[in-house]
Amino acid sequence: MLYFPQSSRDLVGGGVFLRSIVFNPLGLVLAYLLLLPVLLFGNAGVVSSLFGELEYVTPEASPNGHEVLIVGSNHGSSLSILEGGSLYTVTLLGVDFPKLNPYDGINLSLNSIMRSIVGLKAIVESSKKFNFDGPAYLWLKDGERTVLLQSLILSNGLGNFNGQGYINLYDAQQHAKSKGLGIWEENRDSLTKNSVSNLPSAQTTTTAGHMSSWVELIDVRIFDNGSFGLITLVTREAGSMAGTIVSVVSNTDITKDEDSFTINDQRELKAGESYVVLLTIDRAQTPSFNYNTIWVTYLDPSGGFLGLKNLNGARLLYEYEYSRKINGYVVTPLN
Q1: Domains of the chain, earliest start first
Q2: Phi, psi at residue 111, to the nearest 5°?
Q3: What is the mean pLDDT of the segment spanning 53-64?
Q4: Distance CA 221, CA 318 (A)
């Protein structure tokens, strides 16, 4: 299946227009010019419904695997998926990712794509029949069509084709090279040096003192490999939670949020009263927990970081870790 921008589809797909030029010598030249991109790149085009205007070269392959749900992205290079109630971590077969500074534009673009597909259904194609951990092809379901994530990444110059796997992704990489996209951008070396020299010091945050906060995060619970979770906040003085922002913080750069949720509840709370946020990857399947509000997101069961921004402007950072001793999660304030 070929994907073109709408203007290209109107020109290339219009049968009446083609019939009007095919018997005209000048028309033949025009037709050649219109079809030149197809002759050069075959099935190159644009995917727009899921990711905005991103380049995409359709590989000569079709999906053949198991339907899964994407529930998380890990450092931009791997994804967490759910299949039959089991959680797996897959890496993208056939793609190598360049080792770049976390603030590099390529890393930021890649992380944006990975985060945007969390919650989508996909087809995982792995050499394993039961345990899908490890390298695999991942086909994203977009209505009646499917998009190979590896080809999407390579078509935009966000990685290198390493030759592994049975699907030839060379055309996708050549497409990005010919357009100077991502890692193939001209003068990229000088741009990278300039951007690195202007970076703030790594792993630092500037916040108000922790005890100045009027609301704090005190408890994290995760169920069914991240299908559901509970975050408990507590007030230190009376007031409304409205405007408080809770965020899932990047494991690779704690100054950046991967996802965030703003509480809109106007109800007045007493000092010391708890407020529970239910986390779920599917709003349609809400368990019978006691909670105050719902946030559709995914919390990594292996541990990570959470952020809390109060109305007084303080940005608080917490680490949650699983402890076998208590068979639960320990929450540690980091500032």
Answers
A1: 56-197 (2.40.50.90), 210-333 (2.60.40.1260)
A2: -60, -35
A3: 87
A4: 14
Q: CB 315: neighbour CB atoms within 10 A?
A: 19
Residue 27 has pLDDT above 70, yes or no: no
Phi then psi dihedrals of residue 53, to 5 deg: -85, 85
Position 80 pLDDT exceeds 70: yes
Amino acid at 58: T
Tokens linked to 320: 């949650």
Measured distance CA(151)–CA(8) in Å, rounded? 21
What's the mean pLDDT in 61-66? 89
d(CA 296, CA 121): 15
- pLDDT score recorded for residue 150: 93
* Distances in whole angstroms, Cα of residue 117 to Cα of each of 140, 141, 158, 178: 8, 10, 16, 27
Provide the pLDDT for residue 172. 94
**Has residue 287 got a pLDDT over 80?**
no
The count of other CB atoms within 10 Å of the CB of residue 61 is: 16
For residues 303, 308, 314, 317, the Cα torsion angle rounded to the nearest 10 degrees is 0
Backbone angles phi, psi at 65, to 5 degrees: -175, -150
pLDDT for position 307: 92
Has residue 199 got a pLDDT over 60? no
